[in-house]
Amino acid sequence: MSASRWSPAGPAGPVREALIRTHRTRSPHTRSPRSHLDSQAERPPMRLPRLLITFVAATTTVSAVLADLVIPDLAAQHAFNPGWPPHAKFHDAQYMVMTVLLGLIGLTLALRQGRNALLHAAAVLSVPWVGMIGALLFPGTAAYDPEFADRTVFVLGLHGQVFMAVVLLLVLLGAAAAARRTPAGPASP
């Protein structure tokens, strides 16, 4: 760079002007011509879908660990079930880790700006719940072990976990539909 284009204050010419413009638009005391659009990026109608998807994300993150490991009556049917062989317990632990990870990924996506992030969050969060329902289609599977039939909760004729999966999937479907109907703002590509 030649001496005529450099000063103690920094680069001269178009580069310096661009840096100054960038600083001014990011300064809290000045507003860019688009700043009013940026502040409206999260429109009120998008709040309800985001809240619902965040609720499902939090539920997904903690539910399998609570049901399979922490709550004594339920954990006795899963991780601490003496009738389960080690390989069955391995798959239960795998499911717990997977739901925590999917829940955290879904939560991260749900907290990002934009409609696409919400739709991606809903898709990620649906995986363990669709998987739970889909597992019942395999031969020899059941939502509960026969020795726990008297302690199993049924809601509207469905096993409690299956009912919860259906409800959470309906919540995700409704939130995704509402998010899709909301006009995309500047931050919603």
Automatic annotation (TrEMBL):
Highest taxon in the source lineage: Bacteria
Sequence intervals crossing the membrane: 51-71, 93-111, 118-138, 158-179
Stored InterPro entries: DUF6640
Region (Disordered): 22-42
The keyword Cytoplasm is assigned to this record: no
Record has Membrane as a keyword: yes
Bias (Basic residues): 22-34
Keywords, sorted A to Z: Membrane, Transmembrane, Transmembrane helix
Pfam assignment, any one: DUF6640
Full protein name: DUF998 domain-containing protein
Native source species: Planomonospora parontospora subsp. parontospora
